[in-house]
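[SOLVED] Need 3D model of a two-part complex

Original post:
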Amino acid sequence: MNLSRPERYHLGLARAKKLRRLSDQHGWDDEDHSMAQYLCDDVSPYMVHYAMFITTIREQGDEQQRAYWTPKIEAGDVLGCYAQTELGHGSNVKGIECEARWDPEAHEFILHSPTLTASKWWNGTMGRTANHAIVVAQLLVPKTSNSSEYVNHGPHPFIAQIRDMKTHENLPGIAVGDIGPKYGYAPMDNGYMLFDHFRIPHSAMLSNYSRVDPNTCTYSKPANPAVVYGSLTYVRASIIMHARLIMARAVTIAVRYGCVRRQFQDRDSNDKQAPELSVLDYPTVQIRILPLLATAFALHYTGEAMQNLYKGTRAQIDKGDFSKLAVLHAQSSGLKSLCTELAANSIETCRRAMGGHGFGGGSGYIQLNNDYLSKPTVEGDNWMITQQTASYLIKRMAAAVAGKGKPLDGVDEVCREWLKSEHGKNIGPLNIFEDDWKIVQAFHRRSRYLTYQAYVEREVKKRSWNSLLLQLRKVSHAESQSILVTNFYKALHSPQSQMSPTLQGHLTTLFRLFAFYTMDAEARDFSKANAVSDADLDELPARIQQLMTDIRPHAVRLVDSWKVPDFLLDSALGRYDGKVYEDLFNRAHRLNPLNEITFNPHYKSDEIVMGKGSEALDKILAKL
Amino acid sequence: MNLSRPERYHLGLARAKKLRRLSDQHGWDDEDHSMAQYLCDDVSPYMVHYAMFITTIREQGDEQQRAYWTPKIEAGDVLGCYAQTELGHGSNVKGIECEARWDPEAHEFILHSPTLTASKWWNGTMGRTANHAIVVAQLLVPKTSNSSEYVNHGPHPFIAQIRDMKTHENLPGIAVGDIGPKYGYAPMDNGYMLFDHFRIPHSAMLSNYSRVDPNTCTYSKPANPAVVYGSLTYVRASIIMHARLIMARAVTIAVRYGCVRRQFQDRDSNDKQAPELSVLDYPTVQIRILPLLATAFALHYTGEAMQNLYKGTRAQIDKGDFSKLAVLHAQSSGLKSLCTELAANSIETCRRAMGGHGFGGGSGYIQLNNDYLSKPTVEGDNWMITQQTASYLIKRMAAAVAGKGKPLDGVDEVCREWLKSEHGKNIGPLNIFEDDWKIVQAFHRRSRYLTYQAYVEREVKKRSWNSLLLQLRKVSHAESQSILVTNFYKALHSPQSQMSPTLQGHLTTLFRLFAFYTMDAEARDFSKANAVSDADLDELPARIQQLMTDIRPHAVRLVDSWKVPDFLLDSALGRYDGKVYEDLFNRAHRLNPLNEITFNPHYKSDEIVMGKGSEALDKILAKL
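Solution:
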């Protein structure tokens, strides 16, 4: 935290090299390397090389391309990045401006950035590290080999060398560099790159799916573009599992320090010598932290369920059966949106609940927050991708309303049941305090209700899509919450479960806390959906407070069960041994480089560092 | 953003000196100096010297002390800080552990920190800058001059020299330093300080209100301690005005960039050549930004009203009339909590609505957020101080229920009216879409309703205070929202207003947007309070969306009216001239020091910077 941005990149590169060398030395596999990287807890400048670059060559390159590039990549000579997003376009990939124009005479593609906004932007590992890039560009091909009219076949991936292999200087015709400091990700060199009619050979176009015939200019396109969705879904399932880890860290710190920290005696107590209360005993602290403790478990079970779903669907796809892809894609979009939002917000919620020390460097929240805040935006902006989930749900509801033939899938089926039950009306509100399964059903019923409302607006009243966006987001979140609640319930009632009755009891408390807390925030919808009675909804705040009181004595052991190591937490407040104040003092008194300098504070003097004369000031003011 | 923490302090001190010298040179008054400091947009290491230190000497020092210290302060020889908060105690000032023990033989106070948690902590300007400190310590005085039994008279302020006036080194018996990096406030040297039986003279105790007779050990205490509340209230009124400025900056950037940035064509459009839509045309972006545009105006009018209330109350207090102090204190506590929360959250909400570039250094949100996030905690933690507002409201409701004699004040009066109307029941829900004044009344009625519920729980059912904390916070927020809505309404309908009808029209749209948006988030309470009908509450989302559509074309001019200079915004996204992408590119390509270095990215090489050999790596790995 005392380093400058350039120093952070230096450190990041040094760590990345060290990790890779340790990996070679000890023969680590991918999992070992990932774990070491995770414990290092800082993004690596090599990250995009290991992830997107290698994967793209493997998936999009044809056999010959894979054979050519793989040995160079494995030897560490070729270091790559993935240049898709541009200054002016991110989510709307079809709108990118960088062009790859086929020159039929020279048998080359010409990469070109026709505008400033066509500049590649944000691409990790590109700013300073990579010497090669996957460049995604609009593929422009002449109609015929001697036509001057070009046809745009849309964005395609190309591989291009961007820096000299010896000097590491930019190649002529390319302007490439680091975009500068950001919220987080300090050691990552997110970059920009512009091409000025930069020529690359025919073999640069990754041709596993699409290709251009160099002689006839014929373009052939992929047989089934849906395969791409598969890996996107995998990334999103991983994002949920990662969100859970982030939340676990935030909550571990908050629960532990919430017990160590004491503030005020009980106002109603007569004992004037009573110790101050642990802040975690105050409902105002509990309400911020304990529902997040419950949410971390909810995310865990859904992350697990999504990974299993992905594996099953993947196996079906490999057999040519794409039937479950739509539901998987829809669920993973909505869950990515909801879960990363819950996790990102949880860090700041926990931090504020820690009082003044939450703002300090010893909190363990600063880098966690700065880095994680990218997640609500990347891999599909959280507000935008809820449309994908809602669109799918509306289609299924429309199919259920039409009611022809067999249901398309499980969602179509539950929509039909809901319609048959006259929108849940002929069975009345569910008694959520009697039976936990009724809680799950209440979430389902609300999701069906909101889906139906959206279906009516769009399909019956024919309202414009954009005017419905807020409603669509609500539909997506309701469905995602319903998935979280369902998977949590199923995990607790699985016949395979080997939980002790005590543990199951505590997790049941957390299940209810998560469900009721979520329900209370949107109580009116549950009422409108005829899912829960008004009387029961009125009772939720008191129930929530009781559940928090019940789980409070077990909170520390529940977070300890995650075993997040102190090394990773890097938090004085969240230490396993509770020596919060000793650690804070040590960081301030012994580990703070600012205390090694004695300053001259008098305003009439030009001198900044005592005894060093006025040159220090001159040097610094030059940076103003 | 490219500097390290130690460099940030260097720069901060250099800027502070420069500003002070400019002030001398040009004969700036306090307002000029504040404005220059504000435009500099970085906290000054001198800040606490100018604020708390000087004010405390002025208010708490007796005539002789003021005469002694003022010339030294004005000459800039004495540089002071304010050491109250400790490692283990912040909000609970009575619980601080640092002691000032009167030694009747030596006629000195002995400052001592008996535990680690007694260490002064967080105190600004103390870590590296100040040579003097106001030290708040428990005053321990012998029962009589020859008694060995000590009486604790509670926390009192003392002034102590802490560093050598020539060398600026710590004095013996004091451990003082900077606590290290934090979320924000990089140039501020928040400090820690421990005393080991450090002796200070009798004259060190600031004695305008309290004093210890050096011969008899008699302690005399202040006649009316309520005066202290006055300045706390002033600080809180300033916090609201400041919250408004923060929000104005966040919203200015978001509105401007929301217009420049385009994403996706209209899904329902048939024109395939249509330009992509400005993101501010999407309801999903509007709902995050436009209610904040409205909130910034709401905060403005209430900030203004609070300042006027403070001035009026202050004038009364100077005449010995303390009757309005309680309501002022209660209102300012609740408003501090609500308004700083709204402002702090607004920055991150706007940032996320900006897509990828919101995460970049050109957003203008990074330092704004990092610095402002201290506000929900300082000057009374936002969750804690809502108790003060609720406690006051419950007392007034109790008085109204008792109904004896004349009402104590305006709040007592409205409580009586509400009780007379049978809790609003005999007049039915208010027609909020017919008349804006009805909106204001609906907020009042909800606040009365929630106050009454809390009153019943506490005063009738005798429930414990701590078990009611969540409800109390709700009461406080409801009352604060009601104040915001009322002041906004009054400003628009003031007979003195010189607004054009057009402007009044737009501000009325914003008034409704703020009120309906706030109401929608807690709709059930308005229903339970019999303030708004369920049918009207159901209609709120559609009304809000329509109001946003209405104000959208005027959004840019409304934020431009605040005239936040580009110099202060320091945001590529929020530039007045809209040259967003040119500015982002300039920052990346020309102003980024990382691009001046060519690195050696190959993992087998120990070299980090190309051509510099392996020593660079050795140096950096030492920091791991």
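Edit: DSSP finds 19 helices and eleven strands in chain B.
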